[in-house]
Queue: 2 jobs
Job 1
Amino acid sequence: MKYSRIAGTGSYLPERILTNAELETMVDTTDEWIKSRTGIERRHIAAPGQTTVDLAEQAARRALDAAGLTPQDVDLIVFGTTTPDLIFPNCGALLQARLGIHGCPALGLEAACSGFIFALSVADKFVRMGEAKCALVIGAETLSRMLDWTDRNTAVLFGDGAGAVVLQPSDEPGILSTHLHTEGSHQDLLNCPVGVSRGFAPEADGRVPLFIRMAGAEVFKIAVRSLGSIVDETLAANNLDKSAIDWLIPHQANLRIIQATAKKLEMPMERVILTVQDHGNTSAASVPMAFDIGVRSGRVKRGELVLLEAFGGGFTWGSALIRF
Ligand code: UT7
């Protein structure tokens, strides 16, 4: 059986750091509350004019370098984001132009915080079917552009960044399985309530609500439950015991959610790649950034078994089990 294999990883964070102390001056919050409820200490914010594709280009070039490849090798782009530069062309097309390459399919995929896992699953199938030999898979966001900076429920949680991986075909594993789920009936618990088709009508305060809205406590409970069950599903599909997993690379939304999944897997936190303290919730970017940080810090090594998981708006949730 042919597998797709991760040939290289890359990530990029914008320079500007927004600390919890600075947020204390903007909304009614405290460093202590943010750290104890979420684990977040700081987040990175894109510069004015710096877009999702700007961040993604840096991450993509780093992933290609790590794989020993060039943009000319790329024959598929799958770009997960909820904060695209434009309504269209999709960010994959914009990135393709930025990389100076032509003609290969470039998809934009929106699955909120699960965007990268969904994109990885799609690209994996193209590679395994022999339809791509070098797939660039991106998770990148500028969530700072979609926040209500007067709403303490959300303003303290999110940040900007980009991560990328390069997939190539291989006779050796590889991506062992991916598992994706969506439950649209919970759409009211986490969303951005405007769009092209529904319109951009202002609310009573005169503002167009181009903001993330979240019923945090409800989302928290469903996230913990869904991630617990997808971990079981992934292990069962591969006939593996939880003790086989070397690394958990989770979506970085909240330290307490990550701890709950680690506990379920009976994994010590030393075997979890944790980045939430440094950049908050970067939605689709969070898993590939954590992956890259795990690899570049020398912790995640070739041959190890890695479990990726994410949960986000939709609801969407997914996992990928990878022999790195
Ligand atoms: O990535 C996509 C998926 N998203 C997630 O997985 C996020 C899931 N949810 C969470 O991570 C957590 O629910 C939050 C971090 C959003 C909130 O933590 P919580 O422990 O669930 O707090 P809460 O919403 O139940 O609020 C507790 C209290 C409330 O005050 P009262 O009503 O108890 O007086 C809030 O008003 O904390 C208050 N609060 C804050 N206080 C200081 C809410 N936000 C803040 C804040 N600073 N920023």
Note: The pocket of oxa(dethia)-CoA is lined by residues 29, 33, 37-38, 113, 152-153, 156, 216-217, 219-220, 223, 253-254, 257, 281, 311-312 (CB under 6 Å).
Job 2
Amino acid sequence: MSGFVIAVDGPAASGKGTVAQGLATLYGLPYLDTGLLYRAVGVSAQRQAGGVGEASATAAAQALDPALLDDPELRTRAAGELASQAAVFTGVRAALLRFQRDFAAQGSGAVLDGRDIGTIIAPEAPAKLFVTASPEVRAERRWKQLSGQGESVALADILADIRLRDERDSGRAAAPLVKADDAVLLDTSVLSIEQAADAARRIVETARANWAKA
Ligand code: C5P
């Protein structure tokens, strides 16, 4: 039997990163924020070619420097936008696929979060969560996060970003954001961080008991 893999998907600022990190700590599993890979591709295409087009983004994905993943610029609002532009290209997704699949396949098991973990990267994962929240709640969370980082943006602009990203991520042909049939939906709109973590833990405990029996 391979390791226990937890796939966490959901739209921007849904709380999936916090939930996934909490699960990784709880179960002692390595964690990969796959959004960071797309952010790195978008930022590097922007730096090297002055923008995100199919050729520049695919080249950036094929030559991705892992050191870039620690760059604080990846956490900015602009990087999120560049990431979602780069993520529509099949060449970009193909270039990032092996790394993510290898991460999921390590013997210890793993936790990955993103948009297509339960559907494309790790469709066999024994535990799948689809974390969501209303656009208004997500905008407020992202606004707080960006303000905390010293980036001043109007809440209404963040809400517009979120709606645009939802539309682009869900509407694209390549690996669109969609809940896997066997993923458990976790709506965090009215939950505190602790409540969301607790609900996620209960979902994963059930999946783990079934996995151990299999
Ligand atoms: O999760 P985060 O907001 O950092 O992701 C940035 C963008 O990267 C998303 O809006 C999405 O377009 C893209 N992405 C993706 N597939 C993933 C992770 C992120 O397409 N597995």
Note: Strands lie at 5-9, 31-33, 110-114, 127-132, 184-187.
